[in-house]
Specification:
475 residues, mainly alpha, Growth Hormone, Chain: A, globular, membrane, transmembrane helix
């Protein structure tokens, strides 16, 4: 009972969406490339075509949903918690789409490619709708930096729990060897996620969705203060130097995080053979990749309050560069690879967890600059996504293209033939070039990305909000 009283109710409700989304998104991002390439045998042409369609849709739907949530008067758009509540069931359904094949995929077929295209667009649409509402809640629950850091802490605890979904799916399915068990596991993950988001939808209140009259919608004067079409509002936001610096830095971060999520499993399965580590240890390692960053953020929130997110994010770029050089000079031994990827995941994802603080400050500055009575929270997050979301397609497109130039598609076909009929396969595949390019990509991507991010982030000037006087104190 004492623990319940100690918890902050609004923060718990906010973090419930983080828990549900983390449970599903960790599994989706870690497995969808692996499942469609290695199990559904989707061709490279269909894979790249799906990613191009996804890139376009991914970029367009974020500012569109952002504009709708900030300007449409229907409660399911205007009230953030209701957007979560009504969007949650479809979000859960979209998560389940990739894991249940629509036909026989023992041989490459167009249907696998179409399912990939549909799954990516459907999932991203609902992911965007629900998470845009939650991100807006982050900015609107409180303007005080200490309150926002508390939301980060609660959210990271929830994400810590949710990230364990990768460990359980990998452990129960024996690294996808038993796909039917994998399907049962993701179904239960979807049910738990639905419960979490429904709870959030009923209880995540902000100062903007309640008023003395009980009417959550904007008054006529407030609507006029946010006047302007989607293009005018977008230009007003993107013309600010701080917004530009952040979104281009974030584009590189999304590329890097997506690269790690999509290809760590593929690279480690290739460079760390089964004989080097046990299956259970591999499951623990893959699970730790998602859990460890949340632990670091939870333990490090006090440093965010004292140093500020700007300096901490800047430090992570230096660490990123050093890790790339470290791996290059030490070489691809199994335990070095495990250590490298664990540190790289912690560094990249823990920094990523602080980005909502920067976006919230950009929202506050935009509201102050244009004297808005209601912040364009969803619009700012939508513009950020417009620039950054294409990186979620470019990273897997780049990875698959490069790996296939060095024989990854032939290697997959050889492995599939071994599983189907080991006696019929007499020749072996030379994978030395493939393994070399995997290693060099692992080294070079963090160095290149970290260097560019360090340069771009220097233009960001909102650096001391952790020292500012409280602008709003929660009642």
């Amino acid at each position: 009972m004492a623990v319940v009283k100690w918890l902050h109710p609004v923060s718990v409700a906010y973090a419930s969406t983080s828990l549900g989304a983390s449970l599903m998104n960790s599994v989706f991002m870690f497995y969808y490339v692996k499942v469609f390439l290695n199990r559904y045998h989707v061709s490279e042409s269909w894979f790249q075509a799906s990613q191009i369609v996804f890139l376009i849709w991914n970029a367009l739907n974020d500012p569109l949903f952002g504009y709708m949530q900030d300007n449409f008067k229907h409660p399911c758009f205007k009230i953030r918690r209701l957007s979560i509540l009504y969007g949650a069931p479809l979000f859960v359904i979209s998560f389940l789409v990739p894991w249940f094949p629509w036909g026989d995929y023992s041989q490459p077929t167009w249907l696998a490619g179409f399912q990939l295209m549909f799954a990516l667009c459907f999932y991203d649409a609902l992911f965007t709708f629900v998470l845009l509402a939650q991100c807006s809640l982050f900015a609107e629950i409180s303007h005080h930096q200490a309150d926002r850091i508390r939301l980060v802490r609660y959210s990271q605890v929830a994400s810590f729990v949710g990230s364990s979904s990768v460990f359980f799916t990998n452990y129960f399915s024996a690294n996808l060897s038993d796909f039917s068990i994998f399907q049962v596991t993701v179904f239960f993950i979807a049910l738990i996620s639905l419960v979490c988001m429904v709870y959030s939808g009923f209880n995540s209140h902000s100062e903007y969705d309640s008023s003395p009259s009980g009417n959550p919608l904007l008054s006529e004067s407030e609507s006029k203060s946010n006047s302007g079409n989607i293009w005018q509002q977008g230009l007003q936001i993107i013309s600010q130097v701080n917004a530009l610096s952040f979104v281009f830095m974030n584009f590189l971060q999304v590329f890097h995080v997506t690269w790690l999520a999509n290809f760590t499993g593929i690279i480690c399965d290739s460079l760390i053979p089964d004989g080097e580590i046990s299956s259970s240890l591999r499951s623990v390692f893959y699970g730790a990749l998602f859990v460890a960053p949340q632990v670091v953020v939870i333990l490090g929130t006090s440093f965010v309050g004292s140093l500020g997110y700007y300096r901490i994010v800047n430090y992570t770029f230096g660490v990123k560069i050093l890790l790339g050089f470290f791996l290059f000079f030490i070489g691809p031994t199994p335990w070095i690879m495990i250590t490298f990827f664990l540190l790289e995941w912690v560094n990249a994802n823990s920094a990523f967890s602080l980005f909502n603080l920067a976006l919230s400050d950009i929202i506050d500055k935009d509201k102050e600059l244009y004297k808005r009575r209601h912040p364009l929270s969803s619009m700012v997050f939508g513009i950020n996504a417009l620039i950054t979301k294409p990186a979620q397609s470019l990273a897997p497109m780049f990875g698959v293209f490069v790996l296939n130039q060095f024989g990854y598609q032939q290697f997959k076909a050889h492995q599939a033939a071994l599983v189907k009929d080991p006696l019929s396969v007499t020749n072996s595949v030379d994978v030395r070039d493939l393994h070399s390019v995997m290693f060099y990509l692992s080294c070079s991507i963090p160095v290149a990305v970290g260097t560019l991010q360090y340069i771009i982030w220097r233009f960001y000037t909102i650096r001391s909000t952790h020292l500012s006087i409280t602008k709003y104190v929660e009642s």
